[in-house]
Write a structure and sequence with these properties.
This is Oligosaccharide repeat unit polymerase. Keywords: Membrane, Transmembrane, Transmembrane helix. It comes from Pseudonocardia sediminis. This protein is an all-alpha fold. Helix content is 67%, strand content 1%. The protein has 23 helices and 2 strands. It has a two-stranded antiparallel ribbon. The radius of gyration is 23 Å and the shape is globular. The N terminus and C terminus are likely disordered.
Length: 498
């Protein structure tokens, strides 16, 4: 069996006409108009706006990201990995960056010099151009998606094994009650993130010295049912025999219930809850329809600016909120952009520039630390700290749980070259993943390629990877990849082409 026989024929990207052209046009207009009305104009009308070269750079970044989102909406292909990067960059970097630059204000209260602000804007532009160029260069020659995806032989060469999938699903269901009990039970998991933290602290799984044990427990408890549901859902969509079994439907219902308990947005980080929902959405073939994709991209990108800040209502328990009655009260959407650390990613990029000036390059230590996240500090006493910690310490910010986007990760390690290289690597990887996923969309096949489930999972988790920090983000992506490989196998007679 060849690689081509394992996967379905590559679908032909349709030419968008009529409504399929007008709707993305309307959506693209909204991407420009809504931020202008809600964020940029209020700052300009306040009479306190600052204009300069940095404003031009951030404005260019805003137009660039909006343009790339528009072009992807008009595309006949569903490029979820690329869309994840551009949505994050548009909302959390470009729009937030231009707003904060105009107001000369940011959630961390850091005052940047004009030179720092200009280099911050230039670094953002460098990163998005590096990503875009690498993304285009990594495509198949002559637009032949099949030849481009062939270089990802393992993604199309491994296929989902029904027996392994069912074993993983039932294992998740059987062990689920144990994980739920260790995390505090359903009442805690449906209460708040603070309640889960308190429960793990009281049980000794979180301590003043390390949260590794509790973090590992939470990671497995989150990833196991998510991966099991994702793979089972795709397998049932493609395999009639699996779909015909009553026991499979029972397992599906149990996995849905388990995910509601352990992966809900009440007791989990919003980014992770989104990753679970988006992963299931991306795996659904209907999500690739142009009209749906345009509406989804627009709603998600703009919702990230207007709805996202309100979704942490369950982060703290009632006692904590009562002790801080003034916390989190903002009158306008622009107030969130300027004062809430949800939109601190662009600020952290600026802090990385300042860190580079004061500390110099780390020469790859931070990337090495992320790659070896699994090595305990008891064995590696001088293991690099989370990059976000370095940035928080640089400006004396008490809460070290801040972001460290890819721009900051690369710049802290190797300056401008490091940022460009890291974003270029991300662009090339996204293109390869999207090309491989394109070959799985033609319709039900005799076997479900690994790409059909791995790409949705990685693309959904991409928001966390791009946001950073990498060290903090590596555990979940590693567990998901291991589980996905475990439920797949190479069919008899398989050989890799290309």
């Amino acid at each position: 069996m060849t690689l081509a026989e394992t996967s379905s024929p590559a679908p032909v990207a349709p030419r968008l006409t009529g409504t399929q052209f007008v709707v993305p046009l309307f959506c693209a207009t909204a991407l420009l108009a809504v931020p202008s009305g809600l964020f940029f104009l209020p700052v300009l009308d306040s009479g306190r706006a600052h204009l300069g070269l940095s404003t031009v750079l951030f404005g260019a970044g805003f137009l660039y990201t909006a343009g790339r989102l528009a072009s992807l909406m008009w595309s006949g292909r569903a490029q979820w990995a690329a869309l994840g990067f551009w949505i994050f960059t548009y909302s959390w970097v470009a729009v937030a960056g231009l707003t904060q630059d105009l107001a000369r204000s940011n959630p961390l209260g850091v005052t940047f010099t004009l030179d720092e602000a200009q280099r911050q804007g230039l670094l953002v532009l460098l990163g998005i151009v590096a990503f875009d160029v690498a993304h285009r260069a990594a495509g198949a020659r002559g637009g032949d998606v099949r030849s481009g995806a062939a270089r990802f032989g393992v993604l199309l060469g491994r296929v989902v094994d029904p027996r392994r999938t069912l074993v993983l699903g039932w294992f998740a269901v059987v062990t689920g009650p144990l994980f739920v009990a260790l995390l505090g039970g359903p009442s805690v998991l449906l209460s708040s993130r603070q309640a889960v933290f308190d429960e793990l602290s009281q049980s000794g799984l979180y301590s003043s010295s390390t949260n590794a044990t509790g973090g590992s427990l939470s990671t497995v408890a989150n990833c196991l049912p998510f991966v099991a549901l994702l793979v089972l859902g795709r397998l049932m969509a493609d395999d009639r025999q699996v779909r015909a079994r009553t026991s499979t439907w029972v397992l599906l219902v149990l996995l849905v219930g388990l995910n509601v308990v352990v992966n809900n947005p009440i007791s989990n980080a919003r980014y992770w809850a989104f990753a679970v929902i988006l992963g299931l959405l991306y795996a659904w073939r209907g999500s690739a329809r142009p009209l749906f994709r345009a509406a989804f991209v627009t709603a998600f990108a703009l919702g990230a600016l207007t709805v996202f800040p309100y979704l942490d209502a369950f982060r703290y328990d009632s006692a904590t909120l009562a002790a801080n009655p003034g916390a989190g009260t903002y009158d306008r959407p622009v107030d969130y952009i300027l004062a809430k650390t949800d939109y601190g990613s662009i600020t952290d990029i600026g802090i990385a520039v300042r860190f580079g000036d004061s500390q110099g390059p780390q020469w790859g230590r931070q990337i090495l630390g992320a790659a070896t996240f699994w090595v305990p500090r008891s064995l590696w006493t001088d293991k690099p700290d989370n990059t976000a910690f370095l940035l928080a310490d640089e400006v004396g910010f008490a809460n070290r749980n801040i972001d460290s986007p890819l721009w900051a990760e690369g710049y802290v390690d190797l300056g401008w070259a490091g940022a460009a290289a890291l974003l270029a690597a991300a662009g090339a990887a996204c293109r390869r993943l999207d090309d491989a996923f394109e070959l799985t969309r033609a319709g039900p096949t005799a076997a479900v390629p690994l790409a059909a489930v791995l790409v949705p999972a990685v693309a959904a988790y991409e928001f966390i990877l791009v946001r950073g920090s990498l060290l903090q983000a590596m555990a979940k992506i590693a567990v998901m990849l291991v589980l996905l490989v475990l439920v797949t196998t190479r069919p008899d007679g398989w050989r890799e082409e290309g």
